[in-house]
Amino acid sequence: MTDSRIVITGIGLTAPNGDSLPEFRENLLKGVAGIENIETRYMGTVHAGVCHFDPLRHQKRKALRIGTRAGSVAIYCSREAVGDSGLDWEKQDRDRVGVYLGVTEHGNVETENEIYNISQFDYDTRYWTHHHNPRTVANNPAGEVTINMAITGPHYTIGAACAAGNAGLIQAAQMLRLGEVDVALAGGVSESIHTFGIFAAFKSQGALARHEDPAKASRPFDRDRNGIVVSEGGCVYTVERLEDARARGARIYGEIVGYGLNSDARDYVLPYSVRQADCMRMALKRAGMEPRDIHLVNTHATATPLGDEQECLALRELFAECPDTYINNTKGFIGHTMGAAGALELAANLPSFEDGRIHACLNVDHLDPKCDAPNLVLNDSLENKRVDVILNNSFGMLGINSVLIVRRYEE
Length: 411
Known about the structure:
Blueprint: E1 6-14, H1 21-30, E2 35-40, E3 44-49, H2 61-66, H3 69-85, E4 97-103, H4 108-119, H5 132-136, H6 140-149, E5 155-159, H7 164-178, E6 183-190, H8 196-204, E7 230-231, E8 233-241, H9 242-247, E9 254-263, H10 273-287, E10 296-298, H11 305-319, E11 326-328, H12 331-334, H13 341-349, H14 352-355, E12 389-396, E13 400-407
Parallel strand pairs: 3-7, 4-5, 4-6, 10-11, 10-12
Antiparallel strand pairs: 1-8, 1-9, 2-3, 6-8, 9-13, 12-13
Helix pairs in contact: 3-6, 7-13, 10-11
């Protein structure tokens, strides 16, 4: 076990409004959403966040036929993260590379499609694909990355519901400090829009967004919000120990200085502000910081009435006396990318360290008084703000909460 400082040296992502960090960031600052209407089996037209990356950039057609959409998202993001990091991949000891990817759920897409396919043949299992098992095992997205990139170190996915993107990065930091790996590819991925089940479940729960304009359907904190926009996406980071990154002259996006993971232990789906606040305190304590040390909080808020209210209760409790702390949200632009949310939303804000800009919450036409959090950035981005520390919230079903704190790197 070491006390090494852990830093981010590469970012690869695909989001509904961008397939690289520069494109993603530009669209966030311009107020460009990436939500559109799609047709899904048994449901008809639904709003969704669809990614438009080119999977053939890093995969052969045969691999696409055998593998999964989540695997393709993970491979694209991982390859881009390594390229962005400047690592000499050909000389890298791949026994010492770990892959830790957060997911919400995995295998639903493939199972639904395969059951539908055999239904066309009177459910004759002779037509069931022999690719089913490797497609649906829980480690699939991370495993597909190792096959594509010839990584022989440890890999696994982290099932942490919508807290999973942060959890992937937390796992990376822990494994690097333990000395188990020298480089980690970590973050989160989601293929959720390709399963009708998730749309149907949110609809039956009364939590699926509806709006005449899909670009305005995802509206966290707005008085008229009515639910989640389901989205796909992914974000993978190259994560290293500081001494290794400095030795090779790497660009450093930020330093992971604090994190928290805890559970509500109360309900399957209802959030709990008390434990969310506790999780933020845990991360602050680990970072050796007070709430006033945070310059930007990116919220988890998904545009469900109770979920947004509960998080804002926690935010008011911690940051009411912090005039230099600003609060924003990314889901108005991209919807809820589930297991990728924490990782993608962190990436949305890391450029603030350099450009001094804070992207706004989108689609807040009438702020819900119950969501009136201190210094909430609404509709227009802020300019010329010093951002040194970002706190990133990500909460999930079954009461799992994750918080990540990243600081501007300074020697």
